[in-house]
Design a protein that fits this description.
Blueprint: E1 2-5, H1 7-23, H2 26-45, E2 51-52, E3 62-65, E4 72-79, E5 82-90
Parallel strand pairs: 1-5
Antiparallel strand pairs: 2-3, 3-4, 4-5
């Protein structure tokens, strides 16, 4: 399946990596980014792997936690032959607010 990266997803990736770089160190930020890449590769191989979220205001959103960094969650949805990567955020956030502008 083809990947489609939404602008907010790309912004989230940069924000999360910068945060980890500042609050931890360069190695943690790089390890987190590799864990994210592995999660996206897994989603691409098995798109239905993520949990369908009924608690979010946009229909069809799925989530998958990063294995090595389980507090970080990839938000995505499936469209025909495309996986649309929507957000990557820390799990302690109010998720509903992430998708109000959608």
């Amino acid at each position: 399946m083809k990947l489609k990266y939404r602008p907010l997803y790309l912004s989230d990736v940069a924000e999360c990596a910068d945060y980890l770089f500042t609050e931890a160190n360069e190695k943690v930020a790089a390890d987190w980014y590799q864990a994210l890449k592995k999660a996206v590769d897994h989603i691409q191989r098995v798109p239905e792997i993520g949990r369908v979220r009924q608690d979010l205001p946009v229909v069809g959103i799925r989530t998958l936690n990063l294995r090595k960094y389980p507090n970080y969650i990839v938000f995505y949805r499936l469209e025909k032959n495309t996986i649309e990567l929507l957000r990557i955020r820390h799990g302690m956030m109010n998720w509903t607010e992430l998708f109000i502008a959608e």
